[in-house]
Amino acid sequence: MKAIRRFTVRPVLPEPLRPLSDLARNLRWSWHAETRDLFRSVDPERWAASGGDPVRLLGSVPPARLAELAGDGPFLRRLAEVAGDLSAYTTGERWYQTQPEELPAAIAYFSPEFGITAALPQYSGGLGILAGDHLKAASDLGVPLIGVGLLYRHGYFRQTLSRDGWQQEHYPVLDPNELPVVQLEEPDGSPAQVSLALPGGKQLHARIWLAQVGRVPLLMLDSDVEENDLGERGVTDRLYGGGSEHRLLQEMLLGIGGVRAVRTYCRLTGHPAPEVFHTNEGHAGFLGLERIAELCADGLDFDSALESVRAGTVFTTHTPVPAGIDRFDRELVARHFGPDAELPRIDVDRILRLGMESYPGGEPNLFNMAVMGLRLAQRANGVSLLHGNVSREMFAGLWPGFDADEVPITSVTNGVHAPTWVAPEVFRLGAQQIGVQRAEDALTVGGSDRWDTVADIPDQDIFDLRRVLREQLVEEVRERLRASWRQRGAHTAELGWIDGVLDPDVLTIGFARRVPSYKRLTLMLRDRDRLMDLLLHPERPVQIVVAGKAHPADDGGKRLVQELVRFADDPRVRHRIVFLPDYGMAMAQKLYPGCDIWLNNPLRPLEACGTSGMKAALNGCLNLSVLDGWWDEWFQPDFGWAIPTADGAGTDPDHRDDIEAAALYDLLEQRVTPRFYERGQGGLPDRWIEMVRHTLSLLGPKVLAGRMVREYVERLYAPAALSHRSMGPDAARDLAEWKGRVRAAWPGVTVDHVETSASDALAELGTTLGLRVRVALGDLGPDDVDVQVVSGRVDEEDRIGDATVVPLKPVGAPDQDGRWVYEGPLSLDRTGPFGYTVRILPAHRLMASSAELGLVAGPSEELVAAAGLLMR
């Protein structure tokens, strides 16, 4: 019989065990080994059955066992020690508290998904795991972050396979009362809620759940409340599900409702109000509109409020793939805003203009969430150096007249939270060298360029560690493979072969990620005979563990999964290659440490960062990857291999895949497998061990989320907080008025005449020429603009590369025609073809970039033709 209603019955812990509840509700246990060990000792079998989830564990322990523990002196001493450690962690000074006082009092960090732990399945892939690692690292560093997301009742989805290898999706219902979250309550005990207005006079209500991530609160909005109609209750049903309107409502709730949730949380707890709002990808972009509405309600006009909001906003873009950006029909957006819906006091046209693709090549009827995110943020970044370059090209239309390298999008390369992803065995080996506390500090705060003490670890210890991790992975794979085949309909009697799957002494390659086409899950299958030869080589075999989920609506991705599964089902190779369904954090934490090689072969440059390879590297796994994302930035032959790419503009996609697959096979056959299997005089693979050592000592400090969050604080959060403080109501009004005046006057801004002291087009290196420029500023004055000379080497088409920018200074008053004269030096500091030009930009002390307005004036084509501007 099926129950008609379900309750969650919480255990009543004996008084001496009450600290267990606090430990279970703070997700620091997910990366703190001592806390997990304490819970494991409560009941090892139930701990394993609960999937390592303390909340589920405590709900299943019999009262007799709890009573026994309440009288167990050694256990209570351990409990007091671990609880005291958590208290010191959450209240004591950390890195942030030792920094200069001008840092922001608080930062709100918005993301559509957060991967904190498998016990809170609110993530689909890299974006969510990155957001979770960002929160954990912020907690370790003491950064006063408030996380904001949604609580999805079905999470993303659980993946199984049909008998013929087709992906099946399952959406188990998640009861918040069984998750490591608590409901935020008003002083009278009622649930804290936020509401959004919907068309037709309806309302969307959401309660606020709180997940405590160490020191960082994570607020999660849940629309499955009785006050909502059935349709509104389903807004937070599943991650990345539903049609356009469903997604729009999710993103309105995340952005607008999220700001309201932050205000509610700060009111109820006394937490400082955020000075900086960080928009993690465009999904949360509506947060800027709510903040504009708040300021308008306090008396500011829209333009002034926009300037105030921009000053304190950071926007991070994560995708170089246009299909990864949410775009909505303008009529759909318009229907959900304005007098009959949300933000009724703001003109709908002003809202639409923030997201419209009003630039060459854009679709003017689509509302682009990333475009809105960029227009609402004074500071923006990509997530690796290469991705920063790609993003500047991708969004260059928003800053017409500027070269892509001047588009105001910087980059902060992602990192990963080492305490979450480093295997306990790897941590213990490091702690033997430098002690537990120093090892913890190295993994969390970071700050050093290299971990030199890795050099002191004996080769035999590294070799033994790698084999232990590989052996653990083999056991994990067999267990998961057996469960998968049972789900596919196989009987136990058919599965004896699984006992021989994988070998702890064989070179092990891992490949696990989401399955969009550009990540090329099946590139390894391009030449199946050659792959089989690699898998079955009599002396140097390889084995491959593959995992990944295709989006439920992506049949092309599902076909790739099926193609891989069918190959892995072949009795000739199924002991050497496996596909594991339901890739998630629990699997990943075994997979990364157990592999010798982490394979990544996306279409370059479509991988924004690729943090899975970072997690593998922290465990001594070597990367074999296309030069994309972070690998393009940090690759060295000392710690991995680069797969050559054929990414010329005219290359046929099929031919490109053939070329790059062949390059992958060549590397495996000629360089990777010989290096793994060759033995030195002591019987160990000396050169392989040396590469593992270099990976740990040189890559380890770079890939830390602690390094990443410190960069965000120093390069983005701190400047944004200063801008926010400078942008009071009067300053915001002044800046908005100035921008309006500049835009109106800009058609009258021109470069009228340029002359130099050069007598001909030949000059010697080191010469300094005098430059004299006459400009028209229309209704503007010298205080409103910068006049610059831009110089450098030129190519065959006279484009300036690696430019040097030098400001010119006004000389005297305007002439009788109202023209101003500017003068300055032009240094010929490079040999070969050399060129320069002159330009005029708007200038204001409260702008973060001279490109902010997207306005630039330069010499006319006639003036360029007459000037002979090239020096050769």
Automatic annotation (TrEMBL):
Enzyme Commission code(s) on record: 2.4.1.1
CDD domains: GT35_Glycogen_Phosphorylase-like (cd04299)
InterPro entries (UniProt xref): Agluc_phsphrylas, Glyco_trans_35, Glycogen/Maltodextrin_Phosph, Glycogen_phosphorylase_DUF3417, Pyridoxal_P_attach_site
Keyword vocabulary terms for this entry: Allosteric enzyme, Carbohydrate metabolism, Glycosyltransferase, Pyridoxal phosphate, Transferase
Gene3D superfamilies in the cross-refs: Glycogen Phosphorylase B
SUPFAM superfamilies attached to this UniProt entry: UDP-Glycosyltransferase/glycogen phosphorylase
Domain DUF3417: residue ranges: 13-120
Catalytic activity: [(1->4)-alpha-D-glucosyl](n) + phosphate = [(1->4)-alpha-D-glucosyl](n-1) + alpha-D-glucose 1-phosphate
Cofactor dependency: pyridoxal 5'-phosphate
Protein family according to the UniProt entry: Belongs to the glycogen phosphorylase family.
PANTHER family: GLYCOGEN PHOSPHORYLASE
Name of the molecule in the record: glycogen phosphorylase
